Amino acid sequence: MSSQIVRKAVIPAAGFGTRLFPATKVVKKELFPIIDRDGRTKPVILAIVEEARRGGIEEIGIVVQPSDRAIFEAFFKTPPKQALLDKLSDANQEYCQYLQELGERITILTQDEQEGYGHAVFCAKDWVNQEPFLLLLGDHVYTSDTEIPCTRQVLEIYEKTGQSVIGLTEMSADIIHKAGCVTGVWQEMNSILTVTQVCEKPDLDYARSHLRVEGMAEDRFLGIFGMYVLKPKIFDSLADSINQNQRYKGEFQLTTCLDTLRQEEGLMGYWVKGQYFDTGMPEFYRQTLINYGQEYRSS
């Protein structure tokens, strides 16, 4: 197998969803409903899995809390009860079969202790098994501005460059403190970037001084899109971070390890031709419900 082929995707879904409390006391945030562009009401996690499959990913590992394993397995691997199945339309009965087939590609992984996003990614190490992998946030859904899915766009940059890739998007000054941010040197203007720094949730003064990118308008920055293709070397950086107890706000983060990966192997950025929709905070989830399925509603 070529080292450039990416077969697996990892989706961390083991957080507590504290910003969506009290709804997350009874429903995992990854199971919150959205109306997808095909008109179906889906849990967020299904839309993310389908995005991975549209990009050509063969296997998906979802990292969850041990107590939530049964919930995710029930959705992806257990058919509905006959009483419900009998009430579904022929189209929805066919969709049930599709979900069962999709479930065969999914492995449920566990994070025994909730030690942060980087730690959740590390919990997929053995399953990834020294392969490059696609990493997707568990609370972001995506739409492409072209016929090429967002995941496929990022995967193609990895295949082209042979280096780990961070999907990027333009961010304004008022939200950059909530996101990871990068700077670097364009290889293809407004498209492919050699990353020279990765920074976790910078304040605006720091971003203005250190994270400007050529050609970007004033107070516009390149933020992380929520989509990565990573070589397995990232697990070495994560292991070092965990072993040395290097935490950010009490948790093991991915961003600092990405910067280590950049220094050791190089790291590319790609300005994705598409949009991400954040479902992890109330104000963003509300906007996602309005905008994400707009293409379906206007057709």
UniProtKB/TrEMBL annotation:
EC number(s) recorded for this UniProt protein: 2.7.7.9
Domain Nucleotidyl transferase: 8-286
Catalytic activity of the protein: alpha-D-glucose 1-phosphate + UTP + H(+) = UDP-alpha-D-glucose + diphosphate
A GO BP annotation: UDP-alpha-D-glucose metabolic process
Gene3D superfamilies: Spore Coat Polysaccharide Biosynthesis Protein SpsA, Chain A (3.90.550.10)
Top-level taxon in the UniProt lineage: Bacteria
InterPro entries membership: GalU_uridylyltTrfase_bac/arc, NTP_transferase_dom, Nucleotide-diphossugar_trans
GO molecular function per UniProt: UTP:glucose-1-phosphate uridylyltransferase activity
Keywords per UniProt: Nucleotidyltransferase, Transferase
Enzyme class, UniProt record, top EC level: transferase
Similarity field: Belongs to the UDPGP type 2 family.
Protein name from the UniProt record: UTP--glucose-1-phosphate uridylyltransferase
Species per Swiss-Prot/TrEMBL record: Coleofasciculus chthonoplastes PCC 7420
Phylogenetic classification of the source organism: Bacteria, Bacillati, Cyanobacteriota, Cyanophyceae, Coleofasciculales
